[in-house]
């Protein structure tokens, strides 16, 4: 199963894949479970892609200050 952010990305990807490969948007896959999922071009198609550096900063800060940090 390949998960994409929006329908535009799904439609661009679909012709280059075998018909047996399932490509779904987030909304289409809601409530479903899959053993294996590939996120395709997920963050670069986000309208907030410029803001993902904040997540890295939070992750680093958490692990530096966490009692589990080594």
Number of helices: 3
Cα(first) to Cα(last) distance is 36 Å
SS strand fraction: 5-15%
Radius of gyration from the alpha-carbon trace, in angstroms: 16 Å
Low-confidence stretches: none
- Write down the overall geometry: elongated
Order of helices and strands: EHEHEH
Helix content: 25-40%
How are the strands of the largest sheet arranged? 2-1-3
State the major sheet: 3 strands, parallel
What is the total domain count? 1
Report on this model:
With 70 residues, this protein is an alpha/beta fold. The protein has one domain. The chain is built from 3 helices and 3 strands; from the N terminus they run βαβαβα. It has a 3-stranded parallel beta sheet with strand order 2-1-3. The termini are far apart. The mean pLDDT is 82.
Question: Briefly, what is this?
Answer:
This protein has 3 helices and 3 strands. The chain is an alpha/beta fold and 70 residues long.
Topology:
Blueprint: E1 2-4, H1 7-13, E2 23-25, H2 26-29, E3 38-39, H3 53-65
Parallel strand pairs: 1-2, 1-3
Essential attributes:
alpha/beta; 3 helices; 3-stranded parallel beta sheet
């Amino acid at each position: 199963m390949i998960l994409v952010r929006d329908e535009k990305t799904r439609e661009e990807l679909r012709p280059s894949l075998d018909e047996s490969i399932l490509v779904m948007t987030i909304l289409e896959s809601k409530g479903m479970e899959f053993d294996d999922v590939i996120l395709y071009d997920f963050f670069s198609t986000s309208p907030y892609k410029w803001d993902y550096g904040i997540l890295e900063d939070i992750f680093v800060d958490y692990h530096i200050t966490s009692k589990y940090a080594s």
